[in-house]
Amino acid sequence: MDCLFCQIIEGKIPSDLLYQDDQIVIFSDINPQAPIHKLIVPRKHIATMNDATAEDAALIGHMVLSAQKLAKQLSIAEEGYRLVWNTNKGAGQAVFHIHLHLLGGRVLHWPPG
Ligand code: 5GP
Ligand code: ZN
After folding, report:
1. How buried is residue 67: exposed, middle or buried, by Cβ count under 10 Å (0-12/13-18/19+)?
2. Domains plus CATH for the chain?
């Protein structure tokens, strides 16, 4: 499949891999928007959050809790961090394989724009 993140998961495109298990991989964003910018990506190809179903509930829960764990490991849990799912073009989604952004290491303004 012609999907950038599937190719990263398969190791065909290199990445700065931080963590992997049977359900997810975590790597650094190539164009970081904050001092810490990691991507939590399911091995399962799901194009957008609109395509997730009840069958994916445990997987999505695992992604969120893995992000929380990583935030603690990276020592940004107390100061604060942001978890973001961009969904479709109007929200800035560029890679159509769902991914959870973990952003931190600076003050994150609101509204995000
Ligand atoms: P989206 O805009 O779809 O929510 O997020 C896609 C993210 O993937 C962007 O933050 C972008 O910088 C990142 N990205 C795009 N291509 C690559 C790549 O080849 N490697 C890595 N590590 N990140 C990428
Ligand atoms: Zn994919």
Report:
1. buried
2. 4-104 (3.30.428.10)
Distance (Å) from CA 99 to ligand 2 centroid: 10
Q: How far apart are CA 99 and CA 79, in angstroms?
A: 23
CA-closest candidate to residue 9, choices 94, 24, 96? 24
Chain segment 1-55, per-residue pLDDT in tens: 799 999 999 999 999 999 999 999 999 999 999 999 999 999 999 999 999 999 9
- Give the Cα separation of 76 and 45 in Å (integer): 29
Q: Tell me the pLDDT tens digit for each residue of 64-91.
A: 999 999 999 999 999 999 999 999 999 9
For residue 31 and ligand 1, the question of a CB distance below 6 A is answered with yes
- Residue 28 CA: which ligand is closest? 1
Whose alpha carbon is nearest atom 13 of ligand 1? Answer: 29
